[in-house]
Every structure is written in structure tokens, then in C-alpha cells.
Amino acid sequence: MNDGNDGGNDGRQNNIIAQALTALEAALGNLQPAPVQAPREQNIAQVPKFYGYENEDLAEWAKRFDAACLTNNWRLNRQKDIAGSFLDRPAFQ
Questions:
Q1: Whole-angstrom Cα distance, residue 81 to residue 78?
Q2: What percent of the chain lies above the pLDDT cut of 70?
Q3: What is the secondary structure of the chain as a DSSP string?
Q4: Which pLDDT score, from 0 to 100, does residue 10 have?
């Protein structure tokens, strides 16, 4: 039970807590946000090879490739090279 006779420690404890909170506030204020990084490229969505045969639909293949680009986070400047890797004879010629 607290009878109010704590020997005057409340004032010192409050001062220590206030100092700790001030130090914590200063430390948090000095934190720098983590740099924003581009999402990593992945290979989640698969793209079929395109051969260029009459029974293949280039527009359908292009839609699947575009969807894979978004899903896999393939950067725009690399998409041309990546698309070329899915072309096979005779489409590659």
C-alpha cells in the first residue's frame, strides 16, 4: 500500500522517465527512412515460346507476355530482350 511516504523518489523517477522519453524522441527523430527499392524481378508467371506458325495467335501471345511482365516485375527497358528469348524458329528469323 502506498502511504505517500516514498522518500521523495517520485520526483527523481519522473525526471529519469522524462529524460528517457526526450532521448527516445531525439533518437527516433534522427531515423532515416529506408530507401525505396524497385520490386525485384521474378519468374512467377510463365510465358510460352512463340514459333510464328499459322495456328498461333500473336495478339494472344502478346497479351500473355504483357501479363507476365506485370506479374514478374520485368522492367520496361528489359522487356524487348526478354520477349526475344521466347521467340523460336521460325518467329526468331
A1: 6
A2: 88
A3: ---S-STTHHHHHHHHHHHHHHHHHHHHHT--PPPP-PPPP---S----B---TTS-HHHHHHHHHHHHHHHT--HHHHHHHHHHTB-TTTT-
A4: 74
pTM: 0.59
**Confidence bin at 36 (pLDDT 50/70/90):** confident
Contacts 24+ apart (CB under 8 A), 47-51: 47/86, 48/86, 49/86, 49/87, 49/88, 50/86, 50/87, 50/88, 50/91, 51/88, 51/89, 51/90, 51/91
Mean pLDDT over 57-68 rounds to: 96
